[in-house]
Write a sequence for this structure.
């Protein structure tokens, strides 16, 4: 996660990683941001059904700049 400071420079504030990541998940291929929330896709994640059904991870940021994984989203089917 990068943030712009008052002078307009960008700095790395946090590195988001999936709690159950594995090689080949393609984590970070798709990212959506809204305020203090980020959803990061892992389209080849196999943890749900073993066939690369994919998943998405929800992160929330706090006032100190820390980001925490709060949910893993997977389809029910």
């Amino acid at each position: 996660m990068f943030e712009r400071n008052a002078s307009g420079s960008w700095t790395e504030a946090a590195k988001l990683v999936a709690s159950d990541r594995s090689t080949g998940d393609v984590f970070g291929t798709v990212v959506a941001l809204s305020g203090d929330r980020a959803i990061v896709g892992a389209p080849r994640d196999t943890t749900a059904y073993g066939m690369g059904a994919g998943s998405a991870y929800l992160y929330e940021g706090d006032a100190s700049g820390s980001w925490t994984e709060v949910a893993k989203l997977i389809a029910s089917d």
